[in-house]
Amino acid sequence: MMLEVVGQFGTGLPPPTRYSLSDPLLKHEVERTKSLLKKNEEEWKEIGCSIMTDAWSDRKRRSIMNLCVNSKMDTVFLSSKECSNEAHTSQYIYDYVESCIQQVGPDHVVQVVTDNATNNMGAAKLLQEKRPTIFWTSCATHTINLMLEGIGGLPRFKKVLDQAKKLTIFIYAHHKTLAMMRNHTKKREIIRPGVTRFASAFLTLQSLSEKKEQLKNMFSSNEWEECKFSGTPKGRASYGTVTSLQFWAGVTQCLKVFSPLVKVLRMVDADWKPSMGLVYGELKVAKEEIMKALGGNEKAYKPIIDIINNKMKGRLDSKLHLTAYLLNPYYHYNDSQIQHDPDVMDAVLEFFDTLLFGDFEMQRQVVMIDLPKYKEKVDRFGADLAIKGCIVNNPDFDPARWWGLFGGSTPHLKKIAMRILSLTSSSSGCERNWSTFEAVHTKKRNRLETNRLNNLVYVQFNANLMEKNKKRKDRTLEVLLANDSHSAQEWIIDGDDGDGDEVDPESVMEAIDEALKTNDNQVPRKSSTTRELYDEDFESENEEQVFEEDEYESDGVKIAEELED
């Protein structure tokens, strides 16, 4: 648009001065960005919002903390600060979050969402002391990824993943085998780089399953027989893997066990609609589907369910999660026993005691008058449209809107329900954008005053988020797929055999990047970067097992969510 205007003006257009770019024009962009985000601020006042935090290190090992505000409409970037020289104590994190709460307005903030790092949990306790009515919750994306990493580490699944990894490394290690594979798959890559290590594992395993017959044809072809690598130890092992019925059965079982959780992961990470009222219920469904996939064999499914439950404990079963679960009519109206679950009801009562702290009359009104009307389907809650309108949890069903339509006889509970059912359950929307940060925080630009630096970051981050929010509406995008191949390096690189035919890993990754751009079925959405974390750095109640973990962000191929039996 800007270049079109320049062209229309002609060659006589004077360029902007350095001063106008760095001061008046930048201030104008800040004000323009703020005006575009006014509608978000109005929504914060109406139905509340979430503060999302994310602390990470860039490629130069600089420590950076982002703060974003999420509401039903979308995510807004609020501030970012480099804190390399600061100790990330609970007090430091709390002070930064508190400044954000004051900026947004304490009455508008319902929750703070972050991972369960020990210092974050310490900050949560400080917040609880000062602002007991604001909840501090764990990122669902991060927690579900922990579950998947833990399950993938169980021996029966790790064996299959290791075999699959060795197979792909062998194929991608040599020009000849790589060319053979691309010929048989019609130039479709096996590797699908994900936004984390587990995402790469799942997507690549699914890709292998889709290309099972082509790979079998490749390893049974005359070309393979004549290939010098067919007689090497790794070549024989790869042939044995591809022709093994046990391996392919293992791949199928892995996908059937992983898929129910991956489905929930996509839901909370994509943020197509508020997920606070969905995450607990959908995890229950995922556990049931996993047990069914394993034929109801308790010995087979118990270790998996134990991992899920351990990761949920203290993270995704809070009083906020369970209250949102009960107040989502899709679950309550389809299973009336939820209201008799002591764990759920204890959490609900504790939630209202916290939210309405010190206001006994309001607690009595909501808990003893309003809530029973909802549970017993009195007044509009019992209307045919109210009952039939929440039978199916399709993409268009909005539990907060349902409350807006049918909760008129309980105005106080209606307001609370609409606020918590409009919340996100994940902080992945507060994404790390290294290119934006590094473009601003160069040595040269570090000479700029702090205020100007903050304005540059504010404008650029929000421009990126606005673009992401537009693309977020496209539900065909695969949120686990990264738009570059570097996150899949461990599926490509393993050292060479010293035979002079090795493929340069960088050229392989460039080829995969090109395939991602040209393949119609793979639509990367944004730049994303993997961060590795370790579970011992995190707190959770009554949790004994420790698994290595990564943290998610998001993006782009359409993959079937349900596997054929």
How does this structure look, described?
This protein has helices at 2-9, 18-22, 24-36, 38-47, 90-104, 118-130, 140-152, 155-173, 175-184, 197-210, 212-219, 222-226, 233-242, 245-270, 279-293, 298-312, 319-327, 329-334, 342-355, 360-375, 384-388, 399-406, 411-420, 434-440, 450-472, 505-518; strands spanning 49-57, 63-70, 75-82, 109-114, 135-138, 522-523, 531-534, 548-551. The model is unreliable at 519-534 and 536-565 (pLDDT under 50). It has a five-stranded mixed β-sheet. The chain has a two-stranded antiparallel ribbon with strand order 7-8. By secondary structure, it is α/β, with parallel strands linked by helices. It has three domains: 46-138 and 426-472, 2-Layer Sandwich (Nucleotidyltransferase, domain 5), CATH 3.30.420.10; 146-250 and 479-557, no CATH class; 312-420, no CATH class. One of its GO terms (molecular function) is protein dimerization activity.
Write the layout of secondary structure elements.
Elements: H1 2-9, H2 18-22, H3 24-36, H4 38-47, E1 49-57, E2 63-70, E3 75-82, H5 90-104, E4 109-114, H6 118-130, E5 135-138, H7 140-152, H8 155-173, H9 175-184, H10 197-210, H11 212-219, H12 222-226, H13 233-242, H14 245-270, H15 279-293, H16 298-312, H17 319-327, H18 329-334, H19 342-355, H20 360-375, H21 384-388, H22 399-406, H23 411-420, H24 434-440, H25 450-472, H26 505-518, E6 522-523, E7 531-534, E8 548-551
Helix pairs in contact: 3-25, 5-6, 7-14, 7-16, 8-9, 8-13, 8-14, 10-14, 14-15, 17-19, 22-23
Domain HAT C-terminal dimerisation: 394-462
Domain DUF659: 16-166
Biased composition (Basic and acidic residues): 555-565
